[in-house]
Amino acid sequence: MAVHIRLTRQGTKKKPFYRIIVTDQRNRRDGRFIEKLGTFNPLDASGAIQLDRVRLAYWVSNGAQLSHTVDRLIKTAPPAASES
Question: What is the CATH number of domain 3-76?
Answer without folding.
Answer: 3.30.1320.10
